[in-house]
Every structure is written in structure tokens, then in C-alpha cells.
Amino acid sequence: MPGERSVDDPASLFRLGNTLAERGQTEAAIEAFQRCLALAPDRAAAHFNLGNALRQTGRPVDAIDAFLACLRLVPHFGAAYVNLAESLRRLGLLEQAREMAVLAVRHLPEQPEAMICLANVLHDLAEYAASAELYAQALAREPDHAGALTSLGNSLHALGRLDEALAVHDRAVAAAPYDPDFHFNRAATRLIAGDFAGGWEDYQWRRQRSQCKPRGFGEPWQGEDITGRTILLHSDQGLGDTLQFVRYAPIVAARGCRVVLEVQPSLVRLLRQVPGAVQVVPRGEVLPPFDVHCALMSLPRAFKTTLATIPAPRSYIYADPAATAAWKARIPETKGLRIGLVWAGGSHRDDAGANVIDRLRSLPLAKLAPLGDLPNLHLFSLQKHDPEHACTPPSGLTLTDLMADVDDFTDTAALVANLDLVITVDTSVAHLAGSMGRPIWLLLRYNGCWRWLHDREDSPWYPSMRIYRQPGPHDWPAVIARVRQDLNGLVRAPTLGLATYPA
């Protein structure tokens, strides 16, 4: 018909892309926007909507290109700065994200979303006071913004203002009662404050978060009678979490049931000796029949664990004697104390939030240089080999590295068993050494994980642990100075220091 637009008309393709995006057909929407831009590359709104669709499909690099193309055409497009900043933040490019978020606020000075965007970046940069102020400014304009409420709660939590944080988290949960992330955030604040009853309940919401892959097991065991039945206890988060909460396996077995453990493959050999576990299965392999199940991190809730009832034996994981002897033969003869070091956690490229935490909990090996000139000690690397955390020690720090020959945690445990002390950041080796009852000094970031509680130098989970907390964000020098001072005391009287450890 005369005047009828073809299928390849840019305006029709733009409308089609919008319609497909609204229907959740994101890949088809991307194709429509790309066809539109092939015909009309100067259509800024199409670049912007393409960027949004690419973000939804987990392609932040391509989204950044689309938002930049939009801004080249319309430099004052405030929403494009917001979404560009969030895409950069997802990639961990925080300084670049800050620059774009500042421009977003400049172009959208009254918009809560721009303020929240900048606040998000500042929080990731550990500038918690500044992020809290911006979240509050956004809430002054939109008091019931649930996302700003839970984020403000997180920043107040990081600042140690726990009562204020909990009040704000309560408001967030009231505004969006079925959002699992809001419950999860409140759980962290409740738990770090010692409110285990409320914290374990909120922590159950982690199973509904987008990061959690459903197992299809049905409702978990909640403490009811399981005499004569088989229960599957399965890991549902990281290696350190498994090591920390496998302590409950013997307690479950004491209920008169048969316990099957499903854990990460690198832990299978080590955890086969956990009392009460009749079978240990690597995650990813076929499971044996079972009657009921429970995630390891849900066991504190099932047992109604409080601060006073944390099951904390001196040790509940043991190094294999044969492996320990084999590693002893490989360790060079040394004088003085043998100290194991871990300075970095594992990276999580597919989880932006976990990557933020990893950057904050890890420190460059060079920052441990002040430990290098202490007498009567020998330093060993317990750091897993990772290109991002190179093991080349700085000048003056002599470090023996045997980790190339470590296959799994059985080997790591055997190596730890041959050391006098482990000094580590908050990673799986901390839980391993603590679960073995070995003396351990934990180097903790300013905004530490809930499990280490608030302003404590000991841990009710691990009797052999001493905690060295950053006095402020990024302040590793203050932590290392304290460690050096205490190490100096140990090496001058090592027998007395370790015999009475912890103080």
C-alpha cells in the first residue's frame, strides 16, 4: 500500500524492540534495536534501550559501548550516565564508575536514582559515610524507596551503627516483604549484632536470591525427629562456609540418623574423616537416596543456635596422619616459628558483589613486607596459585612456597599441621586452621563478615583464633603493624607464647 512502512523502517524496529523488551523477550529486543541502529545510527534512544537490554542479559561490556554511543549523540542524557556507571560498577571498574555517577548526579540533581547510583559506587569503594549521606538524600525525596533503604542499612552496618542499620532494614523489608535480598541484608546485621534468632530466619531467604541455584529438594529439615532416616547435608555457599558449618554433622548424626555429606570436590578427601558422616559425595555427582535434607548453613537455625550455644570444640577437622608425615618430610629444616601466610581470597568474576568483598578482604603481598625482618621465624605461603594474586615476595620478605604441590584441602591441612601459626585474610584457610584448632590470626577488613561479630578480637566459632581488624577502610598498615608487634613478642618467647595462646 502507498505510504506503508517496510519491516526495516527504523521507527518500526525501535517500537518493536521496546515491545519485545516489555514482554521479557530480551534477546529479540536486542536484535530489533541493532537492526534499527544499522539503518539509523544517530538514534540515541535506540542506543540507550539497547544498552539496557544488554545489561539484562549479563553483557556489561557491550552495554557500556551502547551507552557511550548514546552519550556521544546526546551528552546531557542523564539516565545513560546512571546505567553506564552501573555497568562499569558491575565490571569492578569503580573509579570509572564514580566519574560517570558524578556526571549522572550533575545532570539529574533531583533524581533519587542518580544519587543511589553514586552511593552504590561509593559503598563499593568503602566510602561508607559518603554513601550513607547520599542514600539519605535520595530517601528525603522518596521515603519509601526500598532499594535505597536496604542500601542505607548496608552502609550504616559497615559504619558499625548497627541499631540504626537494623531500623532501616526493617523499613526496607516492610516496604518489600518478599524481596530475598532485603531479608538477606537484614540477616547480616542481625547476626553481626548477635541476634541469632532473627538472623537465622532472615538468612533462610538466601535460597531465593538470584545467586542461588535451586536444588529441587523440597523443604529442608528443621530439627524434627529423624531417627533411623538418611539425611543429606549439602554445601550451599563457599569452601569456608562448608568448613565452618560441617561442625554440625556429628550433632546431626547423634540424632540417630544416617548422614550423607555433599561438599565441594576439593573438600571430599578431607571431610571423609568427619565423625558421623557415613558417606561424602562430591557436589555434581549422582546422590545416593536420602529421606530429608538440610543445607549446612541452615543447621544453626535447625538447632536454634545462639551465641551461648555455638558448638565450638577446639578441633573438629583433622589432618591425615600419612599426609602430615609426607609434608613434614618436604618442609625444609628451619629455626624458630613456622608461619603460614594467606593474603588474598578467591576472585568471583561472575559475582560483582563477591568481587567487591574480595578486593576489600585481600591485600597485596608487598604490604606484608614489615614481617620480613623479624628473627626466629620462617614464612610459608598458603596462598592458592592465582594469576591475580602473584606470589613474588617483595624485597626483604623470604617466603617458602610449596603450594604448587597442593592438590586439595587434605594437602593444605597437612601443611597447616606442620606450622606453628597461620596468618590469613578472611578466606577458606582461616576456617580450615580454625577447625583444626591451630593458632590463627585473622586479618579482617573494616566492614567484616557477620560471622566475626562486631568489635571482638576473638571468635566464638574458633577458640584458637585472634582477630586483627582494620581501624578504618583500607587500613592494612595499621593491621600489619599490630601483627608485627605481636609476632615480635612470640618469636622472643615462642614456647610460652603458643602454649598460652590465645590469651
Structure description:
The structure is a single chain. The chain is an alpha/beta fold and 503 residues long. Helix content is 48%, strand content 10%. The protein contains 22 helices and ten strands. It has a six-stranded parallel beta sheet with strand order 7-6-5-8-9-10, with helices on both faces. The longest helix is centred in the C-terminal third of the chain and has 17 residues, at 476-492.
The helix content is 40-55%
Number of strands: 10
Rg value = 26 Å
The end-to-end span amounts to: 89 Å
Task: Report low-confidence residues grouped into runs of 5 or more.
Answer: 1-5, 499-503
**Strands in their spatial order, largest beta sheet:** 7-6-5-8-9-10
The share of residues in extended strands comes to 5-15%
Largest sheet: 6 strands, parallel
Shape: globular
Instruction: Look at the helices and sheets and give the structural class.
Output: alpha/beta
Q: What is the tally of helical segments? A: 22
Summarize the structure.
The protein is an alpha/beta fold and 503 residues long. The chain is 48% helix and 10% strand. It is globular and about 75 Å long.
